[in-house]
User: Fold these one by one.
Assistant:
Number 1:
Amino acid sequence: MIQSLHGIGMTSQRTRNRMVERLQEQGIRNAKVLDTLRATPRHIFMDEALASRAYEDTALPIGFNQTISQPYIVARMTELLLEFGPRAKVLEIGTGCGYQTAILAQLCGHVYTVERIQPLQKKAKDHLWEMKLKNISYLHSDGGWGWPDNAPFDGILVTAAPSEIPENLLQQMAVGGIMVIPVGGSDSQSLQRVTRTETSFEVETLEPVVFVPFLPGRI
Ligand code: SAH
């Protein structure tokens, strides 16, 4: 059952305010990103048994061996994506529980989100619908293909780690587009930001991260 958006009381808002203070201490600066995290209920994206832990800065299980990314990582990736201006068309790979999708949908023109595990995407869709976020399109697919019908994208955000950046995703970036993606194996991953210019792909390697693996096929 979907937890109601109502009847949460003040506790969640206060807890979210504290979460945002922690994110500021950790170096997140983009005011729009911070405001959006402050306003977005995170607990509705999680099973009721874990909802009370929703505002801890930690990754938590969402079923099917997957995790909801920790708030810091959601904030950091969104900030990196938006640093050089707003993004009208964003491709997200790894819908998971839909929390990162909710943040993107409030800050970008339209979000195209791809997930390989159908029941996860179904639940995410219900929660995002409950939040009245309508500027989202969903695809059940292996994100390694990207979403060619809607390319090019001026933003791509990937929430599972491939060992190398998938070529299809690079090809589906618009000139001036930005991709934020964790890259590496289970022992060592780093966050990377790719910017497509007229003539090349510029890659910045940022901090070390821990993500679930980017897996082939769909289930
Ligand atoms: N942003 C999500 C993160 C979920 S974990 C959240 O905060 O809930 C990463 C997600 O990526 C998982 O749901 C996993 O199933 C999905 N995933 C992994 N490899 C994928 C692929 N090749 N294509 C699409 N989704 C993939």
Note: The chain has six helices and nine strands.
Number 2:
Amino acid sequence: MTGFVIAVDGPAASGKGTIATRLGGLYSLPVLDTGLLYRAVGVLTERAGRDPDDPAAAAEVARALRAEQLEDPVFRTRGAGEAASRVAVHTGVREALLAFQRAFAAQPGGAVLDGRDIGTVIAPGAPAKLFVTATPEVRAERRWKQLKGQGEDVAFEDILADIRKRDARDGGRDTAPMRQAEDAVLLDTSDLSIDRAFDAARRIVEAARARWEAQSFSS
Ligand code: C5P
């Protein structure tokens, strides 16, 4: 029996990160925020004085990335999100990050991964898949409050524009575009508090786990 893998995909500020972390706590599973990998590649490419839109430069940085480098709080900033989405369009970058993510998902005890292509590309066989979303306005407000809390002084309209641009880029790229896997359950968190959203996610995952256990024990 392979481990229980939970794939949590969705756009920026949909609540998927918090949901993934809480699911990890509930099931005692390790959690990988895959956006952090792309954020790190974006920031480190810029830091090296190279262009995030240059596929070869960004892929080189991605191939050299080590897990120990992921702790930098700069990766959580608004600029890092933008740089991440620029490097994430390059096939070479995605290929360089693939093995690490797949190995994380293949841990014998199972894992939770959140991102954009977990249910479609990284772990297409995951027994539990969620696609977490919310309207761009709601997501922009959440992100705006979060950034303000971190001391970043930004206008709501600018954040909304960022979110729309990122959705278009992430959903429109050729390699591994953000989309709901056919067997993923859609969870719209627009009108839900984070506690209600987590509760809904938990129920979806519980049902998936019961199916997975029944299948695992009968085979
Ligand atoms: O989730 P987060 O906002 O941290 O992701 C930052 C960016 O990284 C996304 O906008 C997307 O371009 C890219 N990403 C991706 N595939 C993933 C996770 C993140 O392309 N699995």
Note: The chain has one domain: 4-218.
